[in-house]
Design a protein that fits this description.
Layout lengths: L1 E9 L5 H11 L5 H4 L8 H6 L6 E9 L8 E9 L7 H8 L4 E7 L6 H13 L2 E7 L8 H12 L7 E2 L8 H11 L12 E10 L3 E10 L2 E2 L3 E4 L4 E4 L2 E5 L3 E3 L2 E2 L4 E5 L13 E4 L18 E7 L5 H14 L4 E7 L3 E8 L2 H14 L4 E3 L3 E2 L1 E5 L4 E4 L11 E16 L3 H10 L3 E8 L3 E9 L7 H8 L5 E12 L1 E8 L2 E2 L5 E4 H18 L7 E7 L2 E8 L15 H21 L6 H5 L7
Parallel strand pairs: 1-3, 1-4, 4-5, 5-6
Antiparallel strand pairs: 2-3, 7-8, 7-16, 8-15, 9-14, 10-11, 10-16, 12-13, 12-15, 17-19, 17-20, 17-21, 18-19, 22-23, 22-24, 24-26, 24-27, 25-26, 28-29, 28-30, 28-31, 31-32
Helix pairs in contact: 4-5
Length: about 600
């Protein structure tokens, strides 16, 4: 039996999941009704948002007569439906390393977009055979010939090689499957070598423990076999083997080049690592597989338990979620105002939002989240360099020689008539222009270098507004660079609140401080005493707002007589408020912490 392993990659909403479901239906794995329900996007969040968050690996079978042969052969097709959003690029990279080929899907109405380019380059870097596919040719606005020219111009794949399909109607799917079987190379494994299997995903099941998804590179895995994880040096016995077709189906063995899952009564979540190698205990491999590059967390924020949720519950939920999403990291953190919690790292703001929602939905967790920040590199006067991911970790200004911020190289694909708006937006965000390329007559690819801190909040929203919804973006981290950055502290009633501190560019500090204090003033309730809100850099106050006290008319019952009677009562009230201000504490709501999310524009 012949084996073909491939990923389906594309920009957001170009039809990857629909194409995956159509391939399943063509192979007889699902029915027409299931096809209409996006069967591979099985997470509630995926269905609600209409995006793929987790890559899904599926096995189907197909009868095909190879070119130049008269005899039909059985083909096993293992394919992975991947996410399209830039925040889940790590999921795509993991999928690509488990395959020999990739289907690059391009929407016939939208053409080549930013993530199309990024995913195509990622597949080329891994050395995969790529089949370009132009999808949605059934739509009235389809421009397959124009899009084929774009693919040739931007990515270098011959226009005539692109296969025209409609995943919705099924047109062109048979031709695509034939091409998959003929063009994609078979797996490059050694069936007789010691077993080596790559772990590319895992989930936790309350009844079966950790379920590990693997791609067998060399040898085979059998039911009852004793195995060892080479990274953690843990030993287990396989109790169950299976494949997703797309529902789980038990099998006796998983051979070279095949994909499946292992159940081995693994109770400790930390025994399994994504990218680790599984080998046979009796006849172990001498060298582990290369695995994956560690993901580069870009955005950090703190999660603290709230309501009925306890610290231990939040930690257990994060443990389970990190097993399923290895690009998310966390470590213990404590805060005077919020107590004990976790400092969490994410690939981007959407990734952060998805993790928060999954914790709340799947584990019934209630929590408070602080405003997101990026990682900074600090060089001290003694020459030492270290990284911080929270403004509170910044040492005293006297010991800091320079602060470096993360920079990204951003590719923007947009209509030609929106170039002016986008260039102004990038200049306002301290961007450095690199180059412009025309893709056809009406679309342009702009390239800018930008500080990541200027991008993570609302850049994507501004991009969509400036391009009437047609602009797309993709970025790569290029390193840390020196910037004129300062730590801005927020003082509430004279007390510094660490969770509200931010690192900002000196030129934007005063405007950002004023805007922030206005937002805080709206969010913090009035108390019985006056509350000063101040923004400070070092010992210098750069902005101030005052929340007036809740007044009580103490002179209401003071009729007639000398005015000094009223003054006496008012002075007495003023003294009381002064004393209360010294000992009173200010309640800061969750919304106040989120006020920092507001852009400084």
């Amino acid at each position: 039996m012949q084996i073909r392993n491939f990923s389906i990659i594309a920009h957001i909403d170009h039809g990857k999941s629909t194409l995956s479901d159509r391939l399943l239906m063509r192979a007889g794995a699902i029915t027409e009704r299931e096809f209409k329900e996006q069967i591979l996007d099985d997470m509630d969040l995926e269905r609600e948002r209409g995006i793929t968050i987790k890559a899904s690996a599926v096995t189907v079978f197909h009868e095909h007569t190879p070119a130049g042969s008269t005899k039909a052969e059985k083909f096993m097709l293992n394919f992975i439906d991947t996410p399209g959003h830039v925040d889940f690029h790590y999921e795509v990279q993991k999928a690509l390393q488990a395959c020999e080929g990739a289907i690059l899907v391009v929407d016939s109405t939208q053409g080549v977009q930013a993530q199309t380019v990024a995913n195509a380059y990622a597949a080329v870097d891994v050395g995969l055979e790529i089949i370009p596919v132009i999808n949605k040719i059934d739509l009235p606005g389809a421009r397959p010939e124009v899009v084929a020219e774009e693919i040739e111009q931007v990515l270098g794949f011959p226009a005539e090689d692109a296969i025209l399909v409609s995943a919705k109607t099924g047109e062109g799917i048979d031709e695509l499957i034939e091409k998959l079987c003929d063009i994609l190379p078979p797996p490059r494994g050694l069936p007789d070598a010691p077993t080596r299997a790559l772990i590319f995903d895992s989930i936790y099941d309350d009844y079966r423990g950790v379920i590990t998804y693997v791609r067998v590179v060399d040898g085979e895995l059998r039911k009852g076999q004793k195995i060892r994880f080479m990274g953690t040096d843990k030993q287990y016995q396989i109790t169950d083997l299976g494949k997703l077709m797309p529902r789980p189906k038990q099998v006796e063995r998983i051979g070279t080049g095949e994909v499946g899952f292992i159940v081995a009564a693994i109770k400790d979540l930390h025994d399994v690592r994504i990218g680790d190698t599984v080998t046979d205990l009796a006849n172990p491999a001498t060298e582990a597989l290369p695995g994956y590059k560690p993901s580069q967390q870009m955005v950090y924020c703190d999660f603290y338990p709230s309501g009925k949720t306890q610290y231990d519950e939040l930690r257990d939920a994060m443990d389970r979620l990190s097993l399923n999403d290895s690009s998310f990291s966390f470590e213990p953190e404590s805060n005077d105002a919020l107590g004990f919690g976790f400092r969490c790292g994410f690939l981007g703001l959407l990734h952060m939002e998805i993790i928060q929602e999954r914790l709340e939905r799947e584990f019934n967790i209630q929590m408070i989240q602080t405003a997101p920040t990026v990682t900074y590199e600090v060089k001290q006067t003694d020459g030492s360099v270290f990284r911080i991911d929270s403004p509170s970790e910044l040492p005293e200004p006297t010991t800091v020689e320079e602060i470096r911020e993360p920079f990204i190289l951003m590719n923007l694909i947009l209509p030609a008539d929106s170039v002016g708006n986008l260039m102004k937006l990038c200049e306002d965000r301290r961007g450095t222009y690199k180059k412009t390329e025309y893709i056809g007559a009406t679309r342009v690819m702009l390239q800018y270098e930008l500080p990541l801190a200027e991008v993570i909040y609302d850049f994507y929203d501004r991009l969509k507004s400036a391009t009437k919804g047609y602009g797309t973006m993709d970025f790569d981290f290029i390193g840390f660079r020196h910037g004129d950055l300062v730590k801005m502290d927020i003082l509430v009633n004279g007390d510094k609140v660490d969770a509200l501190s931010v690192i900002v560019h000196r030129d934007h500090a005063e405007a950002r401080g004023r805007k922030l204090l206005v937002r805080l003033k709206e969010e913090i309730d009035r108390h019985l005493f006056e509350i000063p809100l101040q923004a400070a850099i070092g010992g210098k106050i750069i902005a101030r707002e005052t929340i007036k006290s809740v007044g009580k008319n103490v002179t209401a019952k003071c009729y007639g007589g000398d005015v000094t009677r009223k003054r006496k009562l008012l002075e007495k009230q003023k003294e009381g408020k002064k004393r209360m201000k010294r000992v009173g504490s200010v309640d800061i709501p969750q919304e106040a912490f989120m006020a920092i999310l507001e852009s400084d524009d």
